[in-house]
Amino acid sequence: MSAVLLRRSESITLAYYQPAAARVVLMLLVLCGDCFASDRSVSLESVQTCDGLASAPWDPDAPDRSRAVEFRDLRAVPAAMACRAAIAEAPQLRRLHFQLGRAYDRQGANQDAYQAYRRASDLGSGAAKVNIGILFRQGRRFEKNDAKARSWFREAAEAGIPEGMFCYATAFDNAIGGAPDIAAAKLWYGKAAERGTTKARDALVRLELNGVVTGARCD
After folding, report:
1. Closest CA to 149 of 170, 135, 160, 162
2. Nearest to 128 by CA among 101, 166, 93
3. Is 122 helix (H, G, I), strand (E, B) or coil?
4. How confident is the model over 93-139, as pLDDT tens digits?
5. Which residue has the higher pLDDT, 69 or 31?
6. For the purposes of burial, counting CB atoms within 10 Å of the CB of 156, is it exposed (0-12), middle (13-18) or buried (19 or more)?
7. Measuring CA to CA, which residue among 53, 114, 122, 127 is closest to residue 85?
8. N or C: which end of the chain has fewer CB atoms below 10 A?
9. Average model confidence (pLDDT) for the chain?
10. Cα torsion at 203, 204, 209, 210 (round to 10°)?
11. Can you tell me the distance from the alpha carbon of 215 to that of 124, in angstroms, rounded to the nearest whole number?
């Protein structure tokens, strides 16, 4: 039982005199004491190690973006080991599944990466949706499907992920998974640029100058 909770005897005494709403709150605290205790028992060290080795600079869930790792610099083997250990401690943290996916992705184990990204996406990670779209777009040791790539980019963009907005714009710009659409490309490049995505600003300038098919890449 969590130390911050009332002792059971005290809860019962107070509940007798308190209104119904207070009795409900007290009962929930008593019943959930072990839940709070288990949250505090999670090993912060394993989670921090995974974060330090595999978090993405553009992931809104990253706890410290100044310590995040660019994909090209990610050390895949230790990152995968650390993130698997962290997930065993805190399986509910979506960013850990996303970061494990990045580690597998860096190794080229793209089927494993997809499974990790899907778990992260199911838990609500917009960043994972971006990387699933990239897997489908590139098709390296994985299914190549531009229509699915565009669909995942759309989900990430509509979830408010600036990297997803950029990727969705590249789909309209370069006719990935559908017809080109200069207006839509400008719209989503603009949204990403407003949120600080430098490459989106650069692509928007090229689009204004050259029209569609700027060659901007999402990878």
Report:
1. 135
2. 101
3. helix
4. 999 999 999 999 999 999 999 999 999 999 999 999 999 999 999 99
5. 69
6. buried
7. 53
8. C
9. 85
10. 50
11. 30
Alpha carbons 45 and 207: distance in angstroms, whole number = 46
Model confidence at 68, in pLDDT bands (50, 70, 90)?
Answer: very high
Task: Judge contact between 121 and 135, C-beta under 8 A.
Answer: no
Q: What is the rounded average pLDDT of the residues 39-53?
A: 80
Which residue has 């490309």 as its token pair?
185
- 49 C-beta neighbours (distance < 10 Å), count: 18
Which domains are assigned to the chain? 1-41 (no CATH), 42-144 (1.25.40), 165-219 (no CATH)
Q: Are 146 and 136 in contact (CB under 8 A)?
A: yes
